Amino acid sequence: MHYVWMVIVGFVVGLIARAVMPGDQKLGLIMTAVLGIVGSLVAGFIGQAIGWYQAGQGAGFIGSVVGALIVLFVYMKVVAKPGGSGGSSS
After folding, report:
1. Tens of pLDDT along 32-82?
2. Alpha-carbon span 42 to 80, nearest angstrom
């Protein structure tokens, strides 16, 4: 049952992160849930590294949203294609 709650909370966190981040993110339902789960893991890792959380302690809801925003920002920068249509033929 723990994994079911993790997916549900991850989906909600992913939805909030997508709503806060400007621009159009083309993510489906599963990727939105994965975004929230990975964001929570990132927030927990960063929080432990700077001393906000103890080892084994998870990030809170707000920390998870911030982590998801970081992951979404990086995802958008990696997936965004520079240039545009390209169309030059040499």
Report:
1. 888 888 888 888 888 888 887 777 767 778 888 888 898 888 888 888 666
2. 21
